[in-house]
Design goal:
This protein is an all-beta fold. The protein contains no helices and 19 strands.
């Protein structure tokens, strides 16, 4: 059963200049997303809240939780594409909004797809979906291919260089796969001692994952995988 939660999205895109101040859709800011409230809260990295013009349950929102985000139970987000827009994955679909104005651009699907990422090398969107990861052209919204994976709609993904790393939402048994982006073939799998709810790479080159629903409080939190030692900490 889905419960109320907040997911911290570090929305930074390599190659974009640092902006002097926060604005709607700033790639340098932090985003907290609530799936139960279907709301996205934007903060500068110093902790200053960025107020928007749309009413929210707790604070004014930069993105409208109905007119722009759509009622998708928003869960994760990623910047990218030719126009550096904001792509929002949720338990009820994927939405693209304008990164500068927050205006609605496109709905990609209406099925469960909480994981999203945008490949910075070809600007294509990856989401979870029936049968595996869905890859879309962000200029046209066209579905290009489905990469078969048992993670299906619950696929969480991050593109890194020529690979795409894939986990299954809340599944420790699935592990985290390293796949060749071009072929979709599995190269290797990392064992995970918890059920991941989001994965990403840090500026230190290490892999990070969140664990939100663990019964053991000591396991709940943000984990780092050190490739040099093959250990989580």
């Amino acid at each position: 059963m889905k419960t109320c939660m907040s997911v911290l999205v570090m929305a930074a895109v390599a190659g974009f200049a640092t902006v002097a101040r926060a604005q709607p859709g700033s790639v340098n800011d932090l985003y907290i997303i609530s799936d139960t409230q279907n709301e996205i809260y934007q903060f500068e990295r110093n902790g200053t809240y960025v107020p928007g013009t749309f009413p929210g349950g707790a604070k004014p929102l930069v993105f409208s939780n109905s007119g722009q985000v759509r009622p998708i139970s928003a869960y994760t987000g990623a910047f990218g594409g030719l126009n550096n827009n904001f792509f929002i994955g949720g338990f009820g679909g994927v939405t693209e909004v304008d990164g500068d104005t927050g205006a609605f651009v496109r709905a990609y699907n209406n099925f469960r797809a909480e994981g999203v990422d945008v490949n910075p090398y070809n600007n294509n969107l990856l989401t979870g979906g029936p049968g595996g990861m869905q890859e879309y052209n962000t200029s046209t919204g066209t579905l290009l291919r489905v990469i078969p994976t048992a993670a299906g709609n619950d696929a969480l993904m991050r593109v890194r260089f020529n690979d795409v790393w894939v986990a299954q939402w809340n599944s420790a048994a699935y592990g985290i796969e390293r796949r060749d982006y071009a072929t979709g073939n599995v190269i290797s799998t990392i064992s995970v001692p918890f059920g991941p709810h989001e994965i990403d790479f840090g500026p230190d080159g290490n892999l990070y994952a969140t664990a939100l629903y663990e019964s053991d409080a000591a396991t709940t939190g943000v984990w780092k995988y050190d490739f040099s030692t093959s250990n989580w900490s």
